[in-house]
Amino acid sequence: MRRRLFGSVRARATLGATLVVAVALLAAGASVLLALRSNLTDQASSEAESSARKVAVSIATGTAPAALELPDGDDTPVQVVDGDGRLLAASEDLERISGTGSSAVRPVTPPVDDGGDDGGGDDDGGSDRHGGKGKGKGKGGGGDDDSYAYGEIADDAEGGKGSATVDGETRDYRLAALEVKGTRQGDLTVYAGASLAAEQSAVGTALTVMLTGFPVLLGVVGAVTWLVTRRALRPVEGIRSEMSAITASQDLARRVPEPRTHDEVARLARTTNETLAALETSVERQRRFVADASHELRSPIASLRTQLEVGAAHPELLDVEGAVADTVRLQELAAGLLLLARLDAGERPGEARVDLATLAGEELSQRPAGRVAVRTHLEPVEVAGSRSQLARVVGNLLDNAQRHARSRVDLAVRAEGPCAVVEVGDDGGGVPEAERERIFERFVRLDDARARDDGGAGLGLAIARDVAVRHGGALTVRSSPAGGALFELRLPVAPAA
């Protein structure tokens, strides 16, 4: 059952379309998630750098670490670390932090190098540049009555990623580290973080939507593809069922339905009907050929049998010459039928080089001098093919011309560009223009009575044209200058040896 299902074009098309859409959706979804995460991360980095720069500006303009007004730790945890890695200030309620230069969350009181008070201050703030108590929100080291020296802020901040626990809640943060050089406490580094909760929430929501929507969308694509391919392949099923009925009934006159479209299925239906028409014509031609061959064979066989039976009963009445003539006629008819059968089977001509002038002279010499004169003009020209078959063609054309000529037959062989031309004309009654193609059909005789008396079976010209076509040439007929028929055989000249 599974093999039968996936053996269907409809099922394979549906599966293929669904897989393509699935790959496209996965690629698009991954791109969207990566772009969303990158944008939100960049935004968080910008926020972290902005917060770090605000604190750095305060430090650079003389505010002591203990007097800094630091942002709320829930949104932006901040650390101020000196060159020795000691924490000088930190956001309020900061319990743990990673990814910065110091894991400490409790500021220490830095030493002062100007001989001033070393201590003083408490955890809630230090003295500002006017000696007042710091009002900033955060934890800082001890203050100093003297202000900090002005510092120089670095142009760029270094980014990173870490986590922090503020007031019992742990989050991931995008961190920025910004250096402030030349303060009274030496070179300081400000670390500030921006929460990645928004980025994680947005990415998680987008991923949930994709995981929910993608299967639904794939189901819709599969269903639509299944219905569309069913509609598109419906004419194909009609063609298949009609062909099956034609095979069962053997009625080649039937035709498959042709859709009123201009797509591949319509062209398939038209080609199928053309094939059926050609097959019908071929079968009909074969039937007619068998019937005509049986009819033609019946006459000489019946005549020969009658003569032999009479001879057996009355030897003195035996017509030996008539029996020999009937036997010869029967032999020639059988040879013609055998050659036609080989040609119909696709027998290829040989590759021998044949001089048509010599061949025509030999065929003419084998015929006794009759009541008509034969004028010749023979130029040597070689073709490639079967010598026996070409001899049969020239012989048939000579026999036909001598049979219908009144007093003269013209035989010419010449080269004409890339073709070798053999012309056989007579001064007889000619062939009516409407019958010039029909005479090349098998068992066709325009004058049945005369043809039967002369022994013709209507196969000579049919054999001649078939042989010409098999050799890559053509055989045509037109009126001759003498008023009769002029048969022209054209064959490709053999390539130079």
Verbal overview:
This protein is an alpha+beta fold and 497 residues long. The protein has 3 domains: 1-251, no CATH class; 264-344, Helix Hairpins, CATH 1.10.287; 352-492, Heat Shock Protein 90 (2-Layer Sandwich). It is 46% helix and 20% strand. The chain has 9 helices and 15 strands. The strands form 3 sheets. Strands 1, 2, 3, 4, 5, 6, 7 and 8 form an 8-stranded antiparallel sheet that branches. A 5-stranded mixed sheet has the order 10-12-13-15-14. Strands 9-11 form a two-stranded antiparallel sheet. α7 (387-404) packs antiparallel against α9. The longest helix has 53 residues, at 197-249. It is rod-shaped.
Compact overview of the structure:
This protein is 46% helix and 20% strand. By secondary structure, the protein is α+β, with helices and mostly antiparallel strands. The chain folds into three domains: 1-251, no CATH class; 264-344, Helix Hairpins; 352-492, Heat Shock Protein 90, CATH 3.30.565.10.
Q: Stretches where pLDDT falls below 50 for ≥5 residues?
A: 112-137, 142-148, 448-453
Average pLDDT, rounded to a whole number, is 81
Span between N and C termini? 64 Å
Helix content: 40-55%
Query: What is the strand content?
Result: 15-25%
Which structural class should the secondary elements be placed in?
alpha+beta
Shape: rod-shaped
